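To whoever picks this up:

The parser on our side crashed when reading a file containing two proteins. I've narrowed it down to the boundary between the first structure block and the second sequence. Both blocks are reproduced below exactly, byte for byte. First block:
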Amino acid sequence: MSHRFASFRRFAPVLCGLALGATAWSPFATAIAEAAGPRPAAPLKSAANPESEPAHVIPDTCAQPVYPPEAQAAGIKGSALLTISVAIDGRVENVSVKQTSGNAQLDAAAVEAMKQCRFSPATKNGAPVASQNALRYTFRIDESTPEQIAARNQLRAIIELRGIGKRIDAVTSRCAKLDGLVADNAKQAALQWHQRNDEIVKRTVQLQASVLKSFRQADDAKAADEKEAASRTAIEGLIDQGAATEAASIESAGDEREEQCQIFNSRTVGGEFDLRRLYPEFVSLIEAAPAPSAPAKKK
């Protein structure tokens, strides 16, 4: 019997060129990973539409692609669209270049980095299956200012930290529909989680406004895509997508729903989903950021 809720740690949305497995943006040459398309929420199980879920990269397992020194020195930019074969145990069995911008060095660097990744395998009817996946690495010379780099790091932290709370609430709302002790325990587990984590969430929400403002005020042309990705609508969409996936996981559990909720309750009470435990580096980043200034009072 497989335990669900793996996406509490694996959920790492690809935002405006976020490098998979990286905890910070480089101010120099960067290799950027972009999903080939948006990840839909897990579908509900039905006879006509069996439960299935695509493979997901496990955060912190991918190597940061190394920008080839010769290409970097020559100012060569480009991309490589990769096809990745993932085995039922999450291993990368094969990586091939499906589409290239024409530089063999960039292609080789992308392939080598992807070989280091581990995946949560795709599933069908609850069982792991082999799958084909696509991901594009884009290599570019990043001339961002330190302020822009800091804002991007903060934005990733905001999405991750706020997303956990939304997913806790999404699962709790489904488990609370059950009868008896399981439902009561789910509510109590969520209450304890919020008591331990709400100060961090509050600080994260406060910081979000100033971070989004910094993106809106950017006037350089290459920041246009980042402005769109850093909009409130885009951020809320990413966060809600994670919550919907968790909720669908419970809904599709069928006869195992009560057992899955018991597992969730136990892990939540035990602190497995606490923000400092899941993302210590992001919590430190949020806490180190200057406190947003209070609006001036009208005289």
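<<boundary where parser fails>>
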Amino acid sequence: ITMLSNSNTVSKLYMSVIDDVIESVRELFQDEGIEDRVLEDLRQINSYFCQKVVLTWIVTSPSVSLERSF
């Protein structure tokens, strides 16, 4: 459970950094005539990527037990 919590914290931190970068370049993109939709697409791609990385890390981590009790 601790590893899941840690991965969630890392994921949130990573998303926060990406969101900050996207917001800091928004005006530059607008000045160049690039639509806001491009930045929102980047945000969605990042979210998808981050979820996949966390899931891969959880599944491949040897210290996470995924056993079920019957």
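After patching the parser it read the second block fine. The first helix runs from residue 2 to 31. Residues 64-70 have pLDDT under 50 and may be disordered.
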